[in-house]
Amino acid sequence: MTHVDAVAERGRRGRRAGGWGWFLGWLAVGACGATGLATVVSAGLALALVAAGAAGLLVWRGPRNAIAGLATGLAVPLLYLAYLNRGGPGTVCHAVPGGQTCTDEYTPVPFLAIGCVLFCAGFLLFATLGRRADTAA
Description:
Layout (H helix, E strand, L loop, with lengths): L2 H36 L5 H18 L7 H16 L5 E7 L2 E7 L3 H28 L1
Antiparallel strand pairs: 1-2
Helix pairs in contact: 1-2, 1-3, 3-4
């Protein structure tokens, strides 16, 4: 391997490592945006504005393939909903000091299934687009 090839390989590795940071940035934007849309009545508007501003910055400065992290970020609130409803479907009661408290829970399966698909799709898309960029360079 010549010196030029070694420098090019180090540059590709650096871009790949830096790409993961951009991917995580998009993941945070997706999670923030999805949570903002889900909670639009309370703090959702502020979260949506933060997500929009961060997305503008990431589009302006980041690599294009990192936008796949947005899909992975959209999965975060869905996976959290699946976790919160893990005792469902139906009425779930828990013992508390002085009695019990009951809540109605949804079935977690749809939240879990869609969340897992989005989570995996974002990672696979990012890896695929990253390999294409490496082979094109």
